[in-house]
Amino acid sequence: MQVQKLNHVAYRCRDAAETTQFYRDVLGLKLAHVITQDRVPSTQELAPHCHLFFEMADGSWVAFFDLANEPVVDQQTNSDWAQHLALEVTSIEALGTAQENLTAHGVDVLGPVDHGFIRSIYFYDPSGHRLELTARTTEPGDLERFAAEAPDLIANWTAQKAAS
């Protein structure tokens, strides 16, 4: 397994719009992608959320989860799926090899999970930190489309969250 670079690191946030304003407008990161879902893709847990991705100059991302039913961000009680380190491998084939290697070493692996732009496997390190290995599956034009859709998706999420 050859980990190539950081894909993303994910954290909780209080508010998608507030987080976007800070990371995009204050720090100058590109709002690259937004996913809104009712269920956690890896566990199918019911947890309505907005997942924001901000792109850094090297193409890696910092990501945030705005959870509709958990308005307070408390690191002690964080849902473990909402905070994790995602590392990128070179290909889907490399992801499969990594999964085989982890399993051979007695590590429980969840996935692969197809997120529509990356494919991922999930597991825990010896200290209990959730890790994700991921391979990009984007097609030409996907990243530009994601970035163009992102502001409207945040506005819709914010309105939906306020209505609930």
Please tell me about this protein's structure:
There is one protein chain. With 164 residues, the protein is α+β, with helices and mostly antiparallel strands. Helices cover 28% and strands 37% of the residues. The protein is built from three helices and eight strands; from the N terminus they run E-H-E-E-E-E-H-E-E-E-H. An eight-stranded mixed sheet has the order 2-3-4-1-5-8-7-6. Strand 6 and strand 7 (118-124) form a beta hairpin. The longest helix is centred in the last third of the chain and has 22 residues, at 142-163. The mean pLDDT is 90.
Strand order of the largest sheet: 2-3-4-1-5-8-7-6
Q: Looking at the structure, what is the overall shape? A: globular
Q: What is the highest CATH level, the class?
A: Alpha Beta
For the sheet with most strands, the description reads: 8 strands, mixed
Residue runs with pLDDT of under 50 for 5 or more positions: none
Kindly report how far apart the N and C termini lie.
44 Å
- Percentage of residues assigned to helices: 25-40%
- Tally of helical segments: 3
Number of domains: 1
Structural class designation: alpha+beta
Element layout with pairings:
Elements lengths: L4 E9 L2 H11 L3 E10 L6 E10 L5 E7 L16 E5 L3 H13 L5 E5 L3 E7 L5 E7 L5 H22 L1
